[in-house]
Amino acid sequence: MLFPSASSLGLAVIVSTCIDVVVCKVAITGVKTGIDAKTGARPARRNIYDLYKDEKQFALYIQAMNTLMKTDEKTLTSWFSIAGIHGRPYTTWDGVDAKSGLGGGYCPHGNSLFPTWHRPYLALIEQIMAGHAQEIAKTYKSKDYETAADNLRIPYWDWAATPYGIPDMMTWPTIKINTATGAKNVTNPMYRYEFTRSPEPADVFPNKPGPDADAEDVFLGAQKTTVRRPDKSGNSQMVKINSEGFKANNKSQSLRDAVYMTFAKTKDYNTMATQNTKGASFEIPHGDVHVTIGGGGSDVTTVGHMTSLAFSAFDPSFWIHHANVDRLVAMWQAAYPDAWLKEEVNDAPTFTMRPGEKLNEKTPLHPFTQADGKTPHTSESSRYIKNFGYSYPDIEDWKFTNAKDLSKAVTQRVNILYNKDWRLISTPKPTTTPKVKGVTATSKPTATPTPKSTYKIRGMALNERQAAPKVPREWSVALSAPNNALSEPFYVKCTANNVVVGKMVISAVPNQDEIAAGANRTTHAEFTLKNTLKTTDTGDVPACIKYLQEQLKCEAFKTKSDSKVEKKDIKDLVIEVADEVVNLAKDETEFPTFGERSVHKEISP
């Protein structure tokens, strides 16, 4: 069911300042102001670039975030406490005990609950910030600002669409906004978070070297602020996030391709949701963005907070990044309305989930509580963004009477944003961008053209293949490796002709206690080779094989030091190149469909 029954509207946002976590239960409802009671239209989480242009909402957003960051760290709804739910300081939140006996915080990485767990997590910080914004709006003595506050939701940064790279406004130490007393330069909360007890006490963060201390945790735990791609002195190098990250070696293009192929190829919810299953998932580019912002280098003193699962949520970019991941998941859900979570066995331990437990739509998403303040959120309660009072500009579901039309509209939007070269669509690309308010497109289906990427029918003798009709083919490289293949985080990067094809990041490395408890997680990734084969006729199999044998390279590196690791030293690492038959989409309201993968073992990158 895509369109759940309407929840009650207009509920006041309650900003809890509870410190006694034994008796306090924070009800996570999302923000309920600004919703049209007649149409069901909900305020959108806006692209950060669009929010920046809105003088009123952007000013309220900046001030609300600053207020949250300055809240006493010991307060349950402070920036520090909310960020700490994800990883360190590995303490209980809102009285929800770490019943598994295993560490790592509450967040499930590498299982199918990854999207639905983060949804109430984002809703939590959104409703707290909205409460602050509504109080701040009153100081303007302006109805316009109060309306702006009622409609304010947290923004997202679409790192897979143009303009590529981290937005400039996230790299400025100060930022000019219109306050209630006039225009001022204020602390920019998108730039970094300043720990109010800096450095944090040793019983909160490890900040001194020791025989049992992780060097990366010690370095990050001793910082006075969050850092991004730090130099050896611990200073953030914002420029390098783009120059050596998003804008280097086709990085942003590879992210866009990963997003599009997840939409186009993955029709199973569990596969879309987690890198723990074979196929394309949003969790893979998500991890790449984390490491691209946080960085890695010659030693742990050049690793930033976003690279670490334990510390990433303290960096303000985490929330803008994860709002986009939630947006992509919500768009995928709208495109495939009947696909939903299937039960699986957990391989990813958290504070409250042990390996071997069965996970399904009723599994509690601890430590998040529903509106009654008692019942834990589940994937069932978190399935639809409507339940939390927000939307995205790409998913205006209240304008549609059925799921099929919404699916077509969202699919059209995906093709416009992430399929720039209009690949695997039989109709010509529209000369103007069609509006996604319905299912009407500006172009009409035409005769299917001869595809540029073709492949002769397999299973024939060479002379038979040459005479056979050509059909479209998609080529890709698939990777997999156990998370415990190395004793520390690592990644495998594939390039062709020195251009990045994709990167599989493994951050959640189980410790000995987790392994003993049965943690046995494997990370999977799949990347298209369409860009590297642009100048090669993929119907010429020998030419493709020769090119990929010469140009496609996959190398492994330790995340913390960026030092190379021999692939043979990564136990059970699998790298395989394959192609598959493609049925072209008729127009931009459809995705192509893909046949069975044919693996080319003769290509060993």
Describe the structure.
The chain is of the alpha+beta class and about 600 residues long. The protein is about 25% helix and about 15% strand. The strands form five sheets. Strands 7, 8, 11, 14, 15 and 16 form a six-stranded antiparallel β-sheet that branches. The chain has a four-stranded antiparallel β-sheet with strand order 10-9-12-13. The chain has a two-stranded antiparallel sheet with strand order 1-2. A hairpin with a 2-residue loop joins strand 9 and strand 10. Helix 4 crosses helix 11. The longest helix has 25 residues.
What is the strand and helix layout of this fold?
Layout: H1 48-53, H2 55-70, H3 79-83, H4 114-138, H5 143-150, E1 174-179, E2 182-187, H6 215-221, H7 238-246, H8 251-265, H9 269-273, H10 283-294, H11 317-335, E3 344-345, E4 358-359, E5 364-369, E6 376-378, H12 403-418, E7 454-456, H13 462-467, E8 470-482, E9 490-496, E10 499-506, H14 512-516, E11 522-528, H15 541-551, E12 552-558, E13 564-565, E14 574-583, E15 593-594, E16 598-600
Antiparallel strand pairs: 1-2, 3-4, 5-6, 7-8, 8-11, 8-14, 9-10, 9-12, 12-13, 14-15, 14-16
